[in-house]
Amino acid sequence: MSSPFSSTNNLNLIIQTLCSLFLTLLFSFINIPSLFLHALHTYIHPDDVTPTNPNSSGIKAAIRRPSDTSLKPRKKSTDKFEFDENKAQIFRLKLNHNHLVSRLYYDHFRGVFNFTIVACCSLLLHNFLPKSIDSTGVLHNGTLIPILLGFLGLCRVLIVITKVSFERSASKLLDKQLSVLIGFLFTIIAFLIVLEVFPNWVFDFRFDLLDGYGKFCTAVFMGFLAGLLYVPATKFARAYWLGTDQIRCNLSMIYCGLFGRMLLYLSYLLTVFTSLLWINPFADLFINKNIKMKNARHADRLTGNVGMSRSDFEVFRLCCLLATGVLNMLSVRANLQMFLNEAVLSWYQRLHASKVPDLDYSRAKVFLHNHYICLAGIQFLSPPALVLFFLGLSRINDNVLDHFPALCNLIPCSALIKEMGLVMGWWVVLVLGVLVSVNLALYRQGILYVS
């Protein structure tokens, strides 16, 4: 039996450490989140277009909080009111680093963004490094670093998304109440899945390794995740609704662009498709159960005429889960642009709603969407980050945590690393796909609308 400090273990540990340190130092000198969001179009209302003070410098275009003094009660008058069209102007500018650092929750967005990339690179690198089968110990194949980074990244994302969920002015009170309701409903569904109330042919998961306490904690955690994902799912739905021009407004100001529109289409369709791959009635369409070979050693390498072998299908749906996380990560920029364009649509609707438009609401909406852009970025980034973390942890087969008996007496480590990681990754995709689809259906029926 080789020692924990054999050549393969040392090499893997050194490579993992150097890669993590290099990326951390690189991100400390290069602001990757600012580069990722650079040149997004944001919009501002001018403070004053026709100032009465002759000493004023003219147009003051600044993102400001609408003051209470500007909200004056209207006086009824029989005189005809002439609306000054100059005060209906809206300006567009491109975001840069100086703009972004002044936004609320920018430090949280930057920290989650950078740590997600570092941890995901470490988890991905672990799958390509050579592994020693005979080695044992805590430093087995250098696995300690990707597991540590994966769990820290997972905890960091959950803490940040929970924190922004309690932001008072970031979402409506109704959305917070619906989040609690959604969490409660999905907790009940999770209990039905974990306790295997549904027949075994419905979901392709096994929870035999979990005891009663483990099943209870798993179901509660799944409901907690569903509650956290409600508000991000509503933002995903609005971004998709505007980015793909489902309202048929044909406004060039809110046009997403061909690349961004294709990302929105692909990310949504792949999310729904991947969520169905662990549901057996749908998965059976891709598996050829008629593959029968006398030599069982080569049975997994063959595919049928109308399907694929079970082992090929397992790899296929893992690749789909990975592609879903990556595509949703790449769609963060397009989703944020649609989040900003939502304020422009509100301004346009208010401007043409009547002959004497009241632009105070749109002015406040433009301000809030500029002010909370990094908070929205966290909400768009968190679901794909959770998928990638859960998937990466589920692919670690070294059972490093088995060397901590005190911890493994409380929770089954092998189930936590492998099966539960895969279950949670699929659960995030499923909840996101269901909630976005329900919101899009409500938009299509006219029950919900973007304003």
TrEMBL record:
Membrane topology designation: Multi-pass membrane protein
Cellular-component GO terms for this entry: membrane
Organism encoding this protein: Tagetes erecta (African marigold)
Family: Belongs to the TMEM161 family.
Keywords, sorted A to Z: Glycoprotein, Membrane, Transmembrane, Transmembrane helix
Main location: membrane
Identification of the protein by name: Transmembrane protein
InterPro entries linked: Transmembrane_161A/B (IPR019395)
